[in-house]
Amino acid sequence: MNIDKGRPFMAMDHAYEQSEVVVFGIPFDGTTSYRPGTRFGPMHVRNESEGIETYSPYLDMDLEDHSIHDAGDMFFPLGEVQTVLSIIETYTDGLVKDHKKPVMIGGEHLVTLPVVKSVFKKYPDMHIIHLDAHADVRQDYMGQKFSHATVIRRVADFVSPGKIHQYGIRSGEKSEFEWAKEHTDFNPFSLESIKKLKDILGDTPVYVTIDLDVLDPSIFPGTGTPEPGGITYKELIKALVFLSSLNIVGADIVELSPHYDHSGMSTAVACKTLRELVLAVLK
Description:
Blueprint: E1 3-4, E2 21-26, H1 41-48, E3 55-56, E4 61-62, E5 68-74, H2 81-97, E6 101-106, H3 112-122, E7 127-131, H4 151-155, E8 164-167, H5 174-183, E9 185-187, H6 197-201, E10 205-211, H7 233-243, E11 247-254, H8 265-282
Parallel strand pairs: 2-5, 2-6, 6-11, 7-8, 7-10, 8-9, 10-11
Antiparallel strand pairs: 1-5, 3-4
Helix pairs in contact: 1-8, 2-3, 7-8
């Protein structure tokens, strides 16, 4: 397995063997349909992590108090989507076999698929919590079944669609909205109803995937497909605090394209979101 260790995310420098959570980057944007650049997301998140504190006042937890291993970024052959997905799944299989909780930094959203597949093998009753601007439930995109625009539909090929909970969606084809309304727990436009999940899920294992374009582009312009009308960062933090009460067994953040925000604020937002997400997994 080709891994670039590079510079670890702040305070995530513990040994693999002693760590409950393993963070890793997937710098891949091979199916991006509009503006590429998410392959640079993991590297920029690590490099800019020194700009935030290790302590989360929202969760009253500190990265320094936990053993977290940043495994680095994976290397892939160019132009081979199925090979890339297979490499990611094999790597994540190893993490799950070693009883680690994977937290992935994307990369485009398609890379969520093999990570979810691996975690699902261990937790077949797992639910998916999906925060995004886009529904991502097309059956295919320009004739391709495996795309950032089809990722949740591909997840629904093996996770019952009724166990997929979607929030913040505000963009997609009419057919996507119709399919999601019929098949998933579909909560478009906001995160307001996310708290109902505690009564539904209890201690059921959940996987959380956050496409950062769920945030309004006035807050997070550094993404390939910005969609006006998104949530605020305070709303995202409030949701993450709630999610920390659930049994999170895997998670990811995806779709940071740092070069579209020269101020660096989008990367800072991604860094802080990753901090909160990792701590939510550990809580």
